């Protein structure tokens, strides 16, 4: 297994996260993908004792993950844990994410902060937008998705093979659900704890959440047309 950790300007939190992962999940190989950071992150990478890739400019978390997944496949890994570099994801929850993959018939597991009491709560407006995104994504896919903006995932072999070349770019998490659904990959949620950021600032701003919602709503309009097209071709 390997953990792919996209990072943009996360020098304040990355060393502590790497140390926590080493202590908690020592068998997990670590790969940091630096998405064009302008802080001290590039200087830190060679000193962390992990594999790392550096994008020359900021291309977005989705592109960083695609690069990381492609490299993970090159290294021979077919199970990938994805977590953020800001320290909000608890490495102790990795075992919870991996359990459904090991049971079989599941291609991807996403950690949901809404399935477990306690932990960090985002500001009200951001939570409201997240609920709207959750409703839209659930409506499109027919799956009950409670945390569509979660960046805490475990991918099995079929998901890794698909996402290494097709992971959505930009602010990708809600569209990732749509991509996996369209390709008939099985996804389940698992309860995880969300912590406060240990440094830096969130990429999930209100404008980004609103943009994600608008793209999902567009998919909501297109999805029935895709279904009609499939039926017409059968």
Molecular structure report:
The protein has helices at residues 14-24, 41-44, 61-74, 94-103, 124-141, 157-166, 173-182, 206-233, and strands at residues 2-7, 29-35, 51-55, 80-82, 108-112, 153-155, 187-191. The chain has a single domain, classed as Spore Coat Polysaccharide Biosynthesis Protein SpsA, Chain A (Alpha-Beta Complex), CATH 3.90.550. It is 45% helix and 15% strand. With 234 residues, it is of the alpha/beta class. The protein is globular and about 45 Å long.
Write the layout of secondary structure elements.
Layout: E1 2-7, H1 14-24, E2 29-35, H2 41-44, E3 51-55, H3 61-74, E4 80-82, H4 94-103, E5 108-112, H5 124-141, E6 153-155, H6 157-166, H7 173-182, E7 187-191, H8 206-233
Parallel strand pairs: 1-2, 1-4, 2-3, 5-7
Antiparallel strand pairs: 4-6, 5-6
């Amino acid at each position: 297994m390997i953990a792919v950790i996209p990072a943009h300007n996360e020098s304040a939190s990355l060393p502590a996260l790497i140390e926590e992962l080493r202590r908690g999940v020592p068998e997990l190989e670590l790969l940091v993908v630096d998405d064009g950071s302008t802080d001290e992150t590039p200087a830190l990478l060679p000193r962390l004792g992990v594999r790392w890739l550096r994008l020359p400019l900021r291309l977005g978390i989705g592109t960083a993950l695609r690069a990381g997944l492609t490299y993970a496949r090159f290294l021979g890994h077919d199970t990938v844990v994805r977590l953020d570099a800001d320290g909000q994801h608890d490495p102790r929850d990795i075992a919870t994410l991996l359990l459904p993959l090991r049971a079989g018939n599941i291609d991807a597991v996403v950690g949901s902060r809404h399935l477990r009491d306690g932990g960090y709560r985002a500001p009200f407006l951001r939570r409201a937008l997240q609920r709207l995104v959750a409703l839209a994504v659930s409506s499109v896919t027919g799956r009950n998705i409670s945390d569509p903006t979660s960046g805490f995932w475990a991918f099995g072999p079929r998901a890794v093979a698909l996402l290494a070349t097709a992971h959505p770019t930009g602010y990708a998490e809600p569209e990732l659900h749509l991509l996996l659904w369209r390709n008939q990959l099985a996804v389940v949620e698992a309860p995880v704890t969300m912590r406060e950021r240990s440094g830096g600032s969130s990429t999930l701003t209100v404008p980004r959440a609103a943009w994600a919602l608008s793209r999902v709503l567009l998919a909501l309009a297109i999805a029935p047309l895709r279904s009609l097209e499939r039926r017409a071709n059968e």
